[in-house]
Amino acid sequence: MTAAAPPWTGRLLIVGAGLMGTSLGLAVRRAGGTVHLHDRDPERLRLAESLGAGEACAQATPGPACGSFDLAVVAVPPRQVAAVCVELLRCGVADVVSHIASVQTNVQDEVETELGAVANFVGGHPVAGRETTGPAGADAGLLHARPWAVCPPPSATPDAVEALVGLVRATGAVPVQLTARAHDDLLALVSHVPQLVASALAATLTDHPGAAALAGPGFRDMTRLADSPAQMWTEIVEANAPAVRASLEALIAQLDRIRGDADAPADAVGDLVERGHAGRALLPGKHGRPVRVWASVLVVITDEPGSLARLFADIADSGVNVEDLRIEHAPGQPRGAIELAVAPGDRDRLLEALAGRGWSAVAGAEAQR
Amino acid sequence: MTAAAPPWTGRLLIVGAGLMGTSLGLAVRRAGGTVHLHDRDPERLRLAESLGAGEACAQATPGPACGSFDLAVVAVPPRQVAAVCVELLRCGVADVVSHIASVQTNVQDEVETELGAVANFVGGHPVAGRETTGPAGADAGLLHARPWAVCPPPSATPDAVEALVGLVRATGAVPVQLTARAHDDLLALVSHVPQLVASALAATLTDHPGAAALAGPGFRDMTRLADSPAQMWTEIVEANAPAVRASLEALIAQLDRIRGDADAPADAVGDLVERGHAGRALLPGKHGRPVRVWASVLVVITDEPGSLARLFADIADSGVNVEDLRIEHAPGQPRGAIELAVAPGDRDRLLEALAGRGWSAVAGAEAQR
Fold first, then answer.
1. A298 interfacial to chain B (CB closer than 8 Å)
2. Among A134, A138, A113, A110, residue whose Cα is nearest residue A123
3. Identity of the residue in B145, B282, B331 whose CB atom sits nearest the CB atom of A335
4. Where exactly are the structural domains of chain A?
């Protein structure tokens, strides 16, 4: 149950004890590091400390009074990131200063405007998170196996980059090095624009409340991101406005083609769906392995306490390894279907074993995961 | 483990033994009905019959040679639905004829063009499905607790409507009566446009393959629908082109506002996200009950056979009922975090029980389900 990540025994200062800062603290302490936490909000700081994320530093502003550190990571709200990085670089509290903001270019630009070319500043962004904020949702495993963009400015030394990469590896995350500009362009595409689209799709329900009764699981998937906080996304989109605008334009152009293609809408739709398949095939498979084909088994479950336990005990007895699972909730009834993904060669054995224990189980189709 | 749906002891003819037709057959036979199946493809027909979905009718075209029926449901690909409905209404093989096409208006119009006002034709659309096709993926529970739109033309008799509603209830689905026009407008909003958006988002990766390495679980959620078959969606969008165009325009207008609002992009984004929250709040909660607040518990699991069984056995021992669960797969490592949703009052008891059994479990935030 413990991480396979390498140890890290340095001294880390984390400024900002929110969801990400606290999760980072938990992960680094698990890896063997010493962590000090700073936050303007004493309540939040106390909660993060009590969760075991590190020792609280009670100074009004983070600086040498907190100690001296190998690395400082700034995990404050987007608009404050650059100013705090500049402050930490000026006071020399840590050998290397990094941050975890969702947008990199504006922070790098602001740091360079204030301080010129800096050797010991390296931007970073763990691509992880949840639709919540605050230390209460923190999780030592949140960063595990997630990509963590490492974005050094041209002036950063190889040693500074290596310092951040070592920390990233210790959390179990996977470092991906690229420039701040490339990061922001790609994130607009895979994160910022999808976020806005999820909100826009969900918002259409407010004009057509009758549609909610006809919304299926696909619509829920497409709008889950819309639960994220408004303030955070306002700041992210603002900070990455040109790239978000370019990505939005590309998306709108694709949709416009479907809308406007009066001569051959069918061709346009078919072409779009085929290109969508090609795009999905580029996503890494489960655990970063190449995409594999799984067979699925659908089992009807009840809501009683213990029904999942009975099901998984019966699965364990069958010796079949469940690779993935998903519960499809159905409106109006206290029942649901659980979809189990297994290796294709295991499907029939599992079906037989479950039927023998009285479960209503049927074979689903094969799918790529 | 059996459905709480009412019995149905009539005689049903299903034309088209794909995923939906076969699932319908399984559900109706479970409810006590007699089912005959027709399909042009003898292989598919044999598979559906062997799955227990009904008796195969080997005629070249469906008609009185198959028997006489209380109800016939046409479950063929979109472009052929209207012609098959007309054929069945002409030959009088069933007292009432329905179908399950994703678009209603064009079918109703075509039937009326051919036959004038018809008393025993009632359109229908179960809002269910999977990202697969064919009888092999069929599931007696697929329709359970899903909304099933019932769309009678003005000429349909109350008896004909009641006949379809009785069948819908027997499958465990929830009948939602509305006009064909209203159905098509609302489905464009909650199904057809989200489908196109998922494809468009996934398609952007083909121009920027480097982005795939930075895609998180949110991007996967937003593109899952893009795995659906191109032919089916081409036909659906073509059949509902005006409503899809109107919904696309509404969505594009929302996104355009973000793109173009140079003076106050932050206000526009904040407003959009807030309206998205309001839209999400309109979605029915789990099992159609009002939305409730759940606490979440995150547990780190390994991929070994039996680890889920051990986890759920330990949960069952704690006496806590798991309301929902989700596995977050992480790229690069054979581990994952499972998120369990429980009643807020149960959270601490579950955390304590799991920690006592050696699980790495932390409290997540509360969330609406």
1. yes
2. A110
3. B145
4. 11-178, 184-282, 293-368
Cβ distance of A231 and B270 shorter than 8 Å? yes
Q: Is pLDDT of B39 > 60?
A: yes
Least confident segment among A119-128, B61-70, B183-192, B329-338? B329-338
Enter the pTM of the model: 0.74
Instruction: Please give the structure tokens belonging to residue B213.
Output: 């390495």
Q: How far is CA A31 from CA A5, A52, A136, in A?
A: 7, 13, 21
Q: How confident is the model at residue A365 (pLDDT cuts 50, 70, 90)?
A: low
Report the 10 Å Cβ neighbour count for B345: 9
d(CA A199, CA A260): 24
In this prediction the ipTM stands at 0.74
**CB within 8 Å of A352: residues ≥ 6 apart:** none
Q: What is the mean pLDDT of residues A191-210?
A: 93
Q: Do B367 and A132 touch (CB under 8 A)?
A: yes
Residues A338/A301, Cβ–Cβ less than 8 Å? yes
- CATH tag, B293-368: 3.30.70.260
Rounded to 5 degrees, what are φ and ψ at A18? -85, -155
Closest residue by Cα to residue A214 from B176, B172, B235 = B176
> What is chain A's Cα-based Rg?
24
| Paired tokens of A90 | 């000026």
Closest alpha carbon to A189 in A248, A255, A114: A248
First and final C-alpha spacing in chain B: 24
Q: Do domains A11-178 and A184-282 have the same CATH topology?
A: no
As a three-state string, the secondary structure of B256-274 is HHHHHCCCCHHHHHHHHHH
Distance from CA of A66 to the nearest CA of B (A): 28
In chain A, which among 13-72 make CB contacts under 8 A with chain B? 51
Chain A hits for B130, CB-CB cut-off 8 Å, are 364-365
C-alpha A222: how far from chain center: 16
Position B341 scores a pLDDT of 78
The mean pLDDT of A167-174, rounded to a whole number, is 94
Q: What is the rounded CA–CA span in Å between residue A341 and residue A327?
A: 12
Top-tier CATH class for B184-282: mainly alpha
Alpha carbon separation from A368 to A320, A323, A350, B221, B326 (Å, rounded): 19, 12, 19, 15, 18
- Among the partner residues B202, B235, B300, nearest to A279 by beta-carbon distance: B202
The answer, for A98 touching chain B at a CB cutoff of 8 Å, is no
CATH for B11-178 (3.30.450.40, 3.40.50.720, 1.20.1440.20, 3.30.420.10): 3.40.50.720
Q: Identify the pLDDT of residue A74.
A: 98
* B284 CA: distance to closest CA in chain A (Å): 7
